[in-house]
Amino acid sequence: MKAVIEHATFTEIGMEREALGKMGVEVVDIVESGADIRKEAVDADAIMIETLEIDKEIIDSTTRCKIIAVYATGYDNIDVKAATEKGIFVTNAGNYCSEEVQDHALALIMASVRKLFLYSQAVKSGNWEKKLGRPVRSLLDLKDLGVPIKGIPDITLGIFGFGRIGRGLCRKARCIGFKVIAHDPLVPAEEMVKEGATPVDFDELLARSDVISIHAPLTEETRHRFSYNEFKKMKRGAILVNASRGAIVNEEALIKALKEGQLQSAALDVLEQETPPSEDNPLFKLDNVIVTPHCAFYSERSQMELRRRILNQAMQALRGEVPDNLVNKEVLAKIGRK
């Protein structure tokens, strides 16, 4: 048996080699060896992947693959339909990093609301009198660069996507004092109410929110769900936070809305183009944008949990079992399993 592994957020696969080796599985580390995933996938029994795209061509070329296990919660880099037609399990890491993403999103929200980066950049950059347009008597004078700032109880946080992460963020934000509204067509209104959020339709989410935080998967329905028309429907001076998937936001439209002042600021952990990234992204030149490097998922705890889950799923499939966190449950009928 053979397992092909591609990893981007951890540097070694000793744990995977040891566990799979005990099952008699040959392990090919795509990163370490520089091997071609398209060639290695042909006779692989398991593909454990993080960032590379596994398209229909790769899937159709496989001769004995049982599972494609994704080192992530999102799996939009996998042609799930093609895998299902081929009878291959597709799995993800589930909620392994829910707490970390909730905390990261909340940190981005708080940094944006309190204008922390604007203030920090202003203090450290000097030229205070030029920035302020008057003599600076005290450091306190720089406060005016961020005026106005709303108090937390006066802010309505809109959550787009009310799965595990959206719900957890709702609970934490309400503890701080935010008023929370939420939109998710797949979640019953009573479940939102139970968490203390007011359910609203999409247009109402746009119109009422002072801050919108995105926590939805990337699908054909959510791709560019936030574009210029949506930004124009938002409150002037609203804040957009995205710790989900970059392509849910139309970046060109976002840049335009930020430059026009329609949006006060944006805080992003994800971008439309990340692999490879572009140093010329106009967002990097805007002072009212916070960008972090798709790291919301990360902590030492979550990283190890991620690896354990994907390894376990691969081993389950190689033993002939139905793996945990199966994304394409319809594959069970295809292969005659329950």
CATH C-level of the largest domain: Alpha Beta
Looking at the overall shape, the CATH architecture of the largest domain is 3-Layer(aba) Sandwich
Q: List low-pLDDT spans.
A: none
Structural class: alpha/beta
Q: Helical element count?
A: 15
CATH third-level topology of the largest domain: Rossmann fold
**Amount of beta strand:** 5-15%
Most strands sheet: 7 strands, parallel
**From N to C, what is the helix and strand string?**
EHEHHEHEHEHHHEHEHEHEHEHEEHH
Number of extended strands: 12
Shape: elongated
When the domains are counted, the total is 2
Gyration radius (Cα, Å) is 23 Å
CATH superfamily of the largest domain: NAD(P)-binding Rossmann-like Domain
Q: Mean pLDDT, nearest integer?
A: 95
Give a summary of the structure in a few sentences.
This protein is α/β, with parallel strands linked by helices and 338 residues long.
Describe this structure in words.
- The structure is a single chain.
- With 338 residues, this protein is of the alpha/beta class.
- The protein has 2 domains: 2-96 and 300-334, Rossmann fold (3-Layer(aba) Sandwich); 98-114 and 149-291, NAD(P)-binding Rossmann-like Domain (Rossmann fold, 3-Layer(aba) Sandwich).
- Helices cover 37% and strands 14% of the residues.
- The chain has helices spanning 14-21, 30-33, 37-40, 56-61, 80-86, 98-113, 116-125, 128-132, 164-176, 189-194, 202-208, 228-233, 251-260, 300-318, 331-334; strands at residues 2-5, 26-29, 46-49, 67-70, 89-91, 156-160, 179-183, 198-199, 211-214, 238-242, 263-268, 289-291.
- β6, α9 (164-176) and β7 (179-183) form a beta-alpha-beta unit.
- The longest helix has 19 residues, at 300-318.
- The chain is elongated, with a radius of gyration of 23 Å.
